[in-house]
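Suppose a colleague, Dr. K., hands you the sequence of a protein chain of 251 amino acids and asks what its three-dimensional shape might be. Before reaching for any lab equipment, you can write down a predicted structure in token form. Begin with the sequence itself:
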Amino acid sequence: MRRKHMSDYSRGVMIVDALVILATTMITYLFNYGSLQSTESIHEEGLLRLAVSPQLIGVGMAVTWFVTLALFRSRDTKIVGSDNAEYQRVLNSSITVLGLLALASLYFKVDVSRLYVTEVVVIGLFALLLSRRLGRTWLNNQRRAGNYTKRVAIYGPISDVKLQLEKYASHKEAEFEPVLTIEDSNDLMLKFIGSNKTVSSDLTHLAEVLSKEDIQVLQVVGVSLSSAEMHKKLHWALDGWDISFVVSPSI
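The predicted structure, expressed as tokens, is then:
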């Protein structure tokens, strides 16, 4: 069975977002207008001189909201399901949609129902945040089974690496899955956890090697007299690659 990755979860969140926005827009529309049938068009006297129906406004708002969630990267695999920045980006995108609608209404002089728009954004925002929170609860249960984790390489002194591995072992629901370790030495020796497999690499090819092993995070732990300079080199080595560089809080 194929191991599930955070990219799969992100796609699932995208589908849920679309369903939440669609359901919120339709239910709120029915509550305000009583039917999905065509209602009297809203004639505007602005630049476009077009007849705009409430249905068109609802569709436009839903599409804009869905696109804005993507533009704000609210489903970025680096934050979705774990970082509070996910909630902040959902909030920011929702406020942006409200602002864009206000500007469009003012500029084109379209008489949009403020009550309808406000209800859609407020209720939709609450529903989106709730769905993200419920998603995290489901995600934590999945991670205990080894799914939707981020594969991690740990760099540092042997004692600190062992301590970090013990922490991961005691938190099965953690988002990180330690895959290999890199000893704090000039010669980078990558040792795979749970096997005798080892791979040697220099800094120039480190990111390429990690990418081939589907490593998504390089975590640095512990300190030494020469570690600060080495940490900079490691960070530079990952430049341009989709591998996160995480530094232990103790550093």
